[in-house]
Design goal:
single chain, 136 residues, mainly alpha, Serine Threonine Protein Phosphatase 5, Tetratricopeptide repeat
Length: 136
C-alpha cells in the first residue's frame, strides 16, 4: 500500500493501462473498456476510462461515452469525462442533453475543489473545461 500512496503504479496496472490504450487506438472499444475495468488501481482505472470516453465522444458514440463517464470513480476524471461527452452532444445538436451533463459535471465539481484534489480539478481546471463547453 505504501507504493500506491507514493504514487508508484504497479507494473500490472501500467501494462493494463497501456493495453487499453492500444485497444482504443485500434477501435476495439469493448476490449478497451473491459481491460480498463480490470485495473485494480482506481486512479489508473479512472484515467484510462476518461481516455476511452474522449475517444468515444470523438467517434460520436455519445450514449456509451455518457454511460462510461457516469461510472468513473474519481470525481475529477468523471467531471472531465462528462464535459467531453457534453461537448460531443453539443456538436451533434443535442444541446439539452449536453447541458444536463454539464450540470452533472458541476455537481461533481465541488468535490474536486477539496484540498485532496488539488491539482486534479481543485485549481480551476474543471471551471475551464466547463467554460469551454458553454453552449451558444
Amino acid at each position: 500500500m505504501a507504493a500506491q500512496d507514493a504514487g508508484v503504479v504497479p507494473a500490472k496496472a501500467k501494462a493494463l493501462a497501456q493495453a487499453a490504450g492500444v485497444f482504443v487506438r485500434a477501435g476495439a472499444l469493448e476490449h478497451a473498456e473491459r481491460t480498463a475495468r480490470s485495473i485494480e488501481r482506481p486512479d489508473v482505472c479512472s484515467k484510462v476510462l476518461l481516455d476511452l470516453v474522449r475517444a468515444l465522444a470523438d467517434m460520436g458514440e455519445t450514449g456509451r461515452a455518457e454511460r462510461i463517464a457516469l461510472s468513473i470513480a474519481d470525481e475529477s476524471a468523471q467531471a472531465e469525462a462528462l464535459v467531453s461527452a457534453a461537448r460531443a452532444l453539443s456538436e451533434i445538436g443535442e444541446a439539452e442533453r449536453a447541458a444536463e451533463l454539464v450540470r452533472a459535471a458541476e455537481q461533481v465539481a465541488p468535490l474536486c475543489r477539496r484540498p485532496a484534489h488539488a491539482g486534479m480539478g481543485g485549481d480551476g481546471h474543471l471551471e475551464g473545461l466547463l467554460e469551454r463547453t458553454r453552449f451558444r
